[in-house]
Write a structure and sequence with these properties.
Radius of gyration: 30 Å
Shape: globular
CATH class of the largest domain: Alpha Beta
Number of domains: 5
């Protein structure tokens, strides 16, 4: 072997290793008005948000790979302070909190990263990502020019920056992080903080630049950001937004790909056409850095959902669904857009721009660079319009953008979707739904036990209490160690008390909690909640006795507030007054007990004794296997189940249960509220016209969230898994079942001269094509019909190319299907089912 040949082989091996494990070359990051510059060259940044705590380390490689396959070159994430520092000075970077591992996974896939440290994140995450213990530090005021807060923020931010430095994860060190962020959306609320807020922004900028990490810093939604920061835009549309700093690029940190969901709310949908329209308009108008919020939304495991009342599912109608499946057609439609944008990167970032208007809401934009011209034709009207550019007239559908990379041929239009629609289904392994439904215990053998209400001892104390106070305290005194806080007191009723002998006496409780349960003399009175207001009153009839009477109130949160000015000061828990109200001949008799001595205890008996641990049988904890209760509050249930076969995502259907939390093998998969029906639907799903979170909302009359994600990494391969459920209001586990999520049906409509990719998943293949027509097919998925000019052999050709395969690629053309003599624009429509 020659020396030169040997050296070439070594070089190829080195290059291969760099490709496999990620480049280690150092990158100088800078910027100008046209874009982010990597080693002096402007780079089009196509990014997507994937939050590491909302998935698992085992999911990260697949999610990031699918993001790359979908055309992204960058992954963005927040850093979640309260997840990493739940107790002051005690840090956690294990499991799905392993930020370093996540960034390294991004790097290994050859992508860049944007690290949004915050450390306030909003993100529909409980308390906006702040640890609740911050609230309880003496003299603290959050997100303003307050020394106590700034010291804590600086400590955490410095720790994160140093962690990234030690692992050489910033681009100038050879890592993937090209941008970082300090604070978050403060410009939306800064006016409420006055001059102290302005000083705080300056302090944040100075803190960020003091780290000298060699990459730019972002302040999103901060138009008056100091010049050392890059201001950026968040919203459904940012095409008309411009940075005030003429030397800064146009950056869109959050293009909301859908919307989050509250308990009691239907499912929001943002169409693929509208999302693509927003992206195309942004780049047409000079954008250079774009990020989808979210690209994968994921799951609010444990008690991390904020709000309050935000669901455990954070699907967000993102291009990758909650479980990591491709959300089609959104994923595929955007993939095609990204491919086109990358092909015109140089003209967009270096070319000269010229514009021609066609009325108020239609225009053509031309980017010219080194003899090459790229055209964007935008029609913001809701009806189709003709736009003429360079002597040729093009028909542009309403609310759409056409991209012509050579200013002659339209290769992409945001309203013309050439990607499959995947109809997802839930399946039960090993038996069909009818047989499974017929089993009165849903195929699961349950054991159960009651939770134990907290009460006062004879001496008037509570074991493990937090504190005692003669006032009603904010629930945040418990530092978010549980969703539940007990407020307990005694009322001494003497013989001559005006309430004695009255038949109608109510316990009146004014609360700022989300749910309140009441006990009087150890008897459960019931509960009340409000998803529309934190401020409500519960009145329950009681029967007093002479002497000592015990009041025990259990306040429940469903996530702390995460957004708005002074959101951290929103009070939670029993606000008061708490009083006994009697009536005597129409005259009210009131005994206010708000200033009595209250004893506080955090958490449930079952939490304290770890009922959620994986062991299925434990005689000491007295689990029962007979007389399974139904509609009884404060009950814990346990059952075992085998891991479903295959690789499809796993979910648990909690239909029949009420509200509570669920664990699998000791890991919390989140809060549930399966009994709360969705409301507020809106069937206006036309992609034309501005989108908002209230547009195109479906699922009313159904449980807000019925299925809850169980990551496969939580499951055991060779032995049964243990599921534990705490049911708060009283339901029944008889209908609960374990299922998998997969593609049941595939539909697609693709236009002539486009390439259509069709796929099943999880080892499933195309079992049958129910419809196929090339020409002018009519109708929609599930209701296709042949047009008058369809190619005769379309079905045979589709079967040859796709039947029995998990994936196939079809070029939609006369050459593929034979000439189809049609007057209009030719299309291919298919409908198929997947199976094993």
């Amino acid at each position: 072997m020659g020396v030169q040949r040997f050296h070439r082989i070594i070089l190829l091996l080195v290059l291969s290793l760099c490709f496999v494990f990620g480049s280690t070359s150092r990158v100088h990051v800078s910027y100008d008005a046209r874009g982010i510059k990597l080693n002096g060259h402007r780079k089009l940044i196509l990014s997507g948000s994937i939050h590491y705590p909302r998935s698992t380390p085992e999911m990260w490689p697949d999610l990031i790979k699918k993001a790359k396959e979908g055309g992204l070159n960058t992954i963005e994430t927040y850093v979640f302070w309260n997840a990493h520092e739940p107790t002051r000075g005690q840090y956690d970077f294990s499991g799905n909190l392993d930020l370093v591992r996540f960034i390294k996974t991004v790097h290994k896939e050859g992508l860049y990263a944007i690290l949004r440290i915050g450390p306030y994140v909003c993100a529909e995450w409980t308390y906006g990502g702040f640890p609740v213990w911050l609230h309880n530090l003496p003299g603290i005021k959050l997100r303003t020019n307050n020394e106590v807060y700034k010291n804590e923020m600086k400590t955490f931010t410095t720790m994160i920056v140093n962690l990234m430095k030690r692992n050489k994860l910033f681009a100038p060190q050879g890592g993937p992080i090209i941008l970082s962020q300090i604070e978050n959306e403060y410009g939306n609320v800064i006016g409420k903080y006055g001059d102290e807020g302005k000083e705080y922004v300056k302090w944040c900028a100075d803190l960020a630049t003091s780290y000298k990490i060699g990459i730019p810093w972002i302040m999103c939604q901060q138009d008056d950001a100091p010049e050392s920061m890059i201001s950026s835009c968040n919203g459904f549309y940012c095409d008309d937004w411009k940075p005030r700093n003429p030397n800064a690029p146009k950056v869109w940190t959050e293009n909301w790909s859908g919307w989050f969901k509250d308990y009691g709310m239907g499912d929001p949908h943002r169409s693929a056409e509208d999302l693509a329209f927003a992206v195309a308009r942004f780049f047409q108008k000079g954008g250079s850095v774009h990020n989808y919020y979210m690209y994968h939304g994921g799951t609010n495991f444990g008690r991390t959902a904020g709000g309050p009342f935000i669901t455990t599912s954070y699907d967000y109608n993102a291009p990758l669904d909650e479980y990591g499946n491709k959300n089609q057609p959104k994923w595929g439609h955007l993939k095609s857009l990204h491919k086109v944008l990358k092909s015109i990167e140089k003209p967009l970032l270096y070319g000269e721009k010229s514009e021609t208007g066609f009325g108020q809401w239609a225009n053509a934009t031309v980017y010219s660079y080194k003899g090459k011209s790229v055209c964007f034709l935008a029609n913001v009207y809701q009806e189709d319009k003709d736009i003429t550019v360079q002597g040729t007239t093009y028909r542009v559908p309403g609310w759409s953008v056409s991209i012509l990379p050579d200013c002659e041929t339209e290769v992409y239009n945001t309203a013309k979707v050439n990607a499959q629609t995947s109809v997802m289904v839930k399946k039960t392994n090993g038996e069909d739904d009818d047989n499974y439904e017929g089993n009165p215990f849903g195929g699961l053998n349950w054991v159960w036990r009651d939770d134990k209400p907290v009460g006062l001892s004879k001496s008037g104390h509570v074991r493990g209490s937090l504190m005692m106070s003669h006032s009603l305290l904010d629930q945040k005194i418990a530092n978010d160690t549980s969703d539940y806080l007990w407020y307990i007191t005694r009322v001494n009723i003497k013989k001559r008390d005006s309430l004695m002998g009255k038949k109608k006496i109510n316990l009146h409780v004014h609360t700022n909690g989300h749910v309140v349960h009441a006990f009087f003399n150890k008897k459960y009175l019931g509960y009340k909640y409000s998803v529309s207001s934190n401020d409500f009153v519960m009145d329950k009839r009681i029967k007093i006795k002479r002497g000592k009477n015990e009041i025990a109130l259990l306040s429940t949160t469903v996530g702390y507030n995460n957004y708005g000015e002074f959101f951290d000061e929103t009070r939670h828990g029993i606000w008061g007054p708490v009083k006994l109200v009697g009536e005597n001949h129409g005259e009210k008799i009131i005994k206010n007990v708000s200033s009595s001595l209250w004893i506080y205890k955090s958490g449930l008996y079952g939490e304290e004794n770890k009922f959620y641990e994986a062991g299925i049988h434990n005689a000491r904890r007295a689990w029962h296997s007979t007389s399974l209760p139904s509609n009884r509050p404060f009950v814990w249930y346990k059952a075992t189940f085998p891991t479903p076969l295959g690789t499809d995502p796993v979910v648990v259907d909690l239909r029949g249960l009420s509200k509570g939390e669920v664990w699998v093998n000791g890991k919390s998969i989140g809060r549930f509220w399966a009994s709360l029906e969705a409301k507020g639907c809106n069937d206006n799903c036309d992609y034309r016209g501005a989108y908002s979170g209230e547009k195109c909302v479906t699922g009313c009359g159904e449980p807000t969230q019925r299925w809850y994600h169980i990551p496969r990494s939580f499951l055991k391969e060779y032995e049964d898994n243990v599921m534990v459920v705490f049911d708060e209001f009283g339901g029944s586990p008889q209908l609960v079942k374990i299922q998998t999520v997969t593609i049941g049906k595939v539909c697609a409509t693709a236009y002539e001269d486009k390439t259509l990719e069709l796929s099943c998943q999880g080892g499933s293949v195309f079992k049958e094509f129910h419809f196929a027509d090339y020409g002018e097919p009519e109708g929609d998925c599930g209701d296709f019909s042949r047009g008058s000019c369809g190619a005769r052999h379309t079905m045979n050709i589709i079967n040859q190319k796709c039947l029995g395969k998990e994936r196939c690629v079809i070029r939609v053309s006369d050459e593929t299907f034979g000439a189809s003599h049609c007057n209009g624009e030719k299309r291919l429509a298919v409908e198929a089912s997947c199976g094993v």
